Amino acid sequence: MDEVLSFYERDNVVTEQDLAIMEQYRHELGKRFCRRCEYCQPCPQGVMITPAMGYPIVASRMSPAVAADFCKKAMETVPLCTECGACIARCPYELPICDILKANYAMYRGHVAGSQGGFAGGKSS
Questions:
Q1: What is the DSSP letter of 79?
Q2: CA nearest 20: which of 28, 12, 9?
Q3: What Cα–Cα distance (Å) separates residue 75 from each residue in 23, 36, 116?
Q4: Of 43, 110, 122, 125, which is the most exposed, with the fewest CB atoms less than 10 Å away?
Q5: Which of 101-119 are b and which e, b meaning 16 or more Cβ less than 10 Å from the residue's Cβ?
Q6: pLDDT of 69-89, one tens digit each?
């Protein structure tokens, strides 16, 4: 507890290194990224929007096979999307959620296809 409180007892200093890291994140994320506010939820069709929106970030930090397996439950709900637009209307960042979900699902399917046969958790179709 004392350690946490000590953070508030000193000035918040942002170094040049901190600024460089933040700029790198801005470059990587662009303006089309989900901030995980969940205003888009719930989806009337049952799409797990928030985790599906984050698939590229997960995939960048894991092997494609592990990412696909880790996110399978959420990603397999994406085809339920009817593009009704309910999520888009609620998104305070005006993200093209349906388009992003389609792109993320295509990436996911590519990872699943690439992992079949060589991944213990994959299934042959």
A1: G
A2: 28
A3: 29, 16, 16
A4: 125
A5: beebbebbeebbeebeeeb
A6: 999 999 999 999 999 999 999
Query: Could you give the C-alpha distances from 42 to 5, 45, 48, in angstroms and in order?
Result: 36, 9, 8
Task: Dig out the tokens for 67 from the structure.
Answer: 């990412």
Could you report the per-residue pLDDT of 85-96, keeping only the tens digit for each? Answer: 999 999 999 999
Q: Which amino acid is at 68?
A: A
Q: Which two tokens stand for residue 27?
A: 């470059």
Six token digits for residue 34 = 């989900």
Each residue's pLDDT tens digit, 26-63? 887 777 889 999 999 999 999 999 999 999 999 999 99
